[in-house]
Amino acid sequence: MKHVPNTLSTVRIFLSPIMLFTTNTFVLFSAILTVAGATDMLDGYFARKYHAESRLGLILEAIGDSLYYICACVAALIAAKYRMTRPVAIFIAIVLLIRLVNVILARYRFHVWDVMHLFSLKVIAVAIFPIILVAVYLQRMPDILVFSFLSVVALAFLEESILLFTVKEYDVNCKGLYFLYKERKQEKQVSDNT
Q1: Mean pLDDT, to the nearest integer, of 73-77?
Q2: pTM higher than 0.70 for the full model?
Q3: Nearest 5 degrees, angle CA 115-CA 129-CA 176?
Q4: Mean pLDDT, to the nearest integer, of 170-186?
């Protein structure tokens, strides 16, 4: 069972680019998107459950996640025959820049190439699924949908930035600012009671 998480991540790495070529066949595209998305949810679960977390697993998961979301979004844009406007391109560049800064900051401060598994990013992962399916099915994507989604992603990446600047120790499984605040508040109450 220790190889299951890495196998799931590898499956996602191989399935993701296939989505780019299946946008004309909605059922096939949906099946690949669903299976690859399921591997995204399950690899970390199995790694924690079976104590199979490894450096290779973190790398495979990061590659698999990035490839999955990039390919899924590009496939939706291809299917929607989306004509990118300058404001959308600038916004995408800003969001990608925030993510790049986060990766560099994690490497500089904590000597890791990982990205945090924030709760907000998990919510985005769930939210992107129906957005992509609708865009591929309808073969159109309004700018307001693109801007709304990018805004939420930017906020999640900014949350990660704040955490990377403020935490003393890196925790890849940090859930987010709210959860960290709640945890510290509980620790303070415990220390005040002793």
Answers
A1: 88
A2: yes
A3: 35
A4: 90
CA–CA–CA angle 113, 61, 47 (5° rounding): 110
Whole-number Å distance between alpha carbons of 73 and 119: 20
Q: Are 30 and 76 in contact (CB under 8 A)?
A: no
Selection from 117, 88, 87, 91 nearest residue 102 by Cα: 117
Q: What is the DSSP track for 69-125?
A: HHHHHHHHHHHTT----HHHHHHHHHHHHHHHHHHHHHHHHHS-------HHHHHHH
Which alpha helices (DSSP H) does the chain contain, by range? 4-15, 26-49, 55-79, 86-110, 119-138, 143-166, 177-193
pLDDT score, position 35: 95
